[in-house]
Design a protein that fits this description.
It is found in: Cell membrane. By secondary structure, this protein is an all-alpha fold. The protein contains 10 helices and no strands. About 85% of the residues lie in helices and about 0% in strands.
Length: about 250
C-alpha cells in the first residue's frame, strides 16, 4: 500500500512542475497550452478506452461498469456545479482591481483542480488493484496531465502578483488530493465487493468527463490546430507505451 501511495503522490506533485515552469520562463502563451492540453486529451482518452473500461468489464460485468461510469460522471458534474454555484467569477475587470480578479481566478482554479484530482487518485488505486502495469500507466498519464494544470494555476497567481514561493506551493498542494483519492480507493476496495470493476469505471467516467467537457474543448479553444496535433501526439505516445508493454 505504501508503494502505491508513494507513486500516487509523485504523480500528484507533478503540478509543482507547472509552477516551476511559470517561475522560470513566465506565463506560457495560448498555443503552448493548447498543444499540451491536446496531448493530455489524447493520452487520457486512450487510457479510458484501452485500459480502464476493458479492465472494468474483465473484473466485473456490464452492470457494475455502467454503475461506475454514471457515478464518475455524476461526481464530476456535481464538482463543476458546486464551483460554478459557490465560486462565481466576475468577467468585468473594470469593476474590481485586476490583481484581485486574478487572485480570485487562481482560487477558482485551485479548488477546481483539487476536487478533480480526487477521482484521478481513485483511478490510480483501482489500476493497481488489477495489475501493476496498469496502475503505473495511469499514474504516468495523470502526472503528465497535471503539468498544464500547474501551469494554469501558477499563471493566474503570477498575474495576481503573488510571491514566488506561493506561486510554487499552491499548485503543488493541489496534487496532494491525488494520493488522498488513492488512499480512499484502497480503503473502499477492502470493504466493497466488485470494487475493482466499479472503481475502474468510476475513474473512466471521471476522466472521460474531463476529456470531453474540460481539457479537450479547452485545448481547441486555445489553439485549434495545435490542440488537434497534440491529441494525435498523445494517442501516438500511448500506442508506443502499449507496444512496449506487450
Amino acid at each position: 500500500m505504501e508503494q502505491i501511495i508513494l507513486i500516487s503522490l509523485l504523480s500528484g506533485l507533478a503540478t509543482g512542475i507547472g509552477g516551476l515552469i511559470v517561475l522560470w520562463f513566465g506565463r506560457p502563451d495560448s498555443r503552448v497550452l493548447g498543444f499540451y492540453l491536446g496531448i493530455s486529451t489524447g493520452m487520457m482518452g486512450m487510457v479510458v478506452f484501452v485500459d480502464l473500461l476493458p479492465a472494468s468489464f474483465t473484473y466485473g460485468n456490464i452492470k457494475y461498469t455502467w454503475i461506475g461510469l454514471l457515478i464518475g460522471i455524476l461526481i464530476m458534474s456535481l464538482v463543476d456545479w458546486f464551483i460554478a454555484k459557490f465560486l462565481p467569477l466576475s468577467n468585468h475587470l473594470n469593476q474590481i482591481a485586476e490583481e484581485r480578479y486574478y487572485r480570485q481566478l487562481a482560487i477558482f482554479f485551485t479548488l477546481a483542480i483539487a476536487l478533480h484530482n480526487l477521482p484521478e487518485g481513485v483511478a490510480i488505486g483501482a489500476g493497481f488493484e488489477t495489475q501493476e502495469k496498469l496502475g503505473i500507466r495511469v499514474a504516468l498519464v495523470i502526472a503528465l496531465h497535471n503539468i498544464p494544470e500547474g501551469l494554469g494555476v501558477a499563471s493566474t497567481l503570477m498575474l495576481g502578483k503573488l510571491r514566488s514561493l506561493t506561486i510554487f506551493l499552491i499548485p503543488l498542494s493541489t496534487g496532494l488530493f491525488i494520493p488522498l483519492g488513492t488512499w480512499i480507493s484502497i480503503l473502499i476496495g477492502e470493504m466493497v465487493p466488485y470494487w475493482i470493476s466499479i472503481g475502474l469505471s468510476v475513474a473512466a467516467g471521471a476522466m472521460g468527463y474531463l476529456v470531453v467537457k474540460d481539457i479537450g474543448p479547452e485545448s481547441m479553444k486555445l489553439h485549434r490546430l495545435l490542440g488537434q496535433f497534440g491529441m494525435g501526439i498523445g494517442i501516438l505516445i500511448m500506442y508506443i507505451v502499449y507496444q512496449l508493454n506487450h
